[in-house]
Design goal:
The protein is mostly helical. Helices cover about 80% and strands about 0% of the residues. It has 2 domains: about 5-110, no CATH class; about 110-143.
């Protein structure tokens, strides 16, 4: 039997909490996206929900991620604070419904066959592009 030190156990607990928090943020972003599209959501909550969901799902950040520390700091502050502010504007029962729908959306069946097919399509596309590029070079540059 292996015993972990207290520090190790605390680290594992912190990691578990962070994973749970990140999962909740992901769920809430999807829930806000749903809220922004639902007619029962108040217009001001719709506006803010749409902005927060778009920001969270967008590849463009206020501060680019490649800037050390600051790049991830905006994701760790702007998105959670925006989520909390928006959730406060949406009626509790409605937000509960959106969160349940968001959990159902995020639980998607995974298909290894589909993943293999996508990888094969990318390989074929890369080979085709290389072949066409090679032919173009032969025709235009060497003759």
């Amino acid at each position: 039997m292996r015993f972990y030190s207290r520090d190790r156990q605390e680290s594992l607990e912190l990691l578990r909490r962070l994973k749970s928090w990140a999962k909740g943020v992901k769920r809430d972003v999807i829930a806000l996206w749903l809220a922004a599209r639902d007619r029962r959501t108040p217009w001001y909550a719709k506006l803010l929900a749409g902005m927060i969901a778009a920001y969270a799902l967008s590849p463009v950040d206020l501060i680019p991620d490649f800037i050390p520390i600051l790049g991830y700091l905006d994701d760790l502050i702007v998105v959670p604070v925006g989520i909390m502010a928006t959730v406060a504007l949406i009626p509790r029962a409605l937000m509960t419904e959106f969160r349940l729908k968001a959990e159902q959306i995020s639980i998607r069946p995974q298909s290894r066959a589909a993943a293999v097919m996508i990888v094969l399509i990318w390989i074929v596309a890369t080979i085709l592009a290389a072949w066409l590029g090679y032919r173009y070079l032969l025709v235009h540059w060497l003759h």
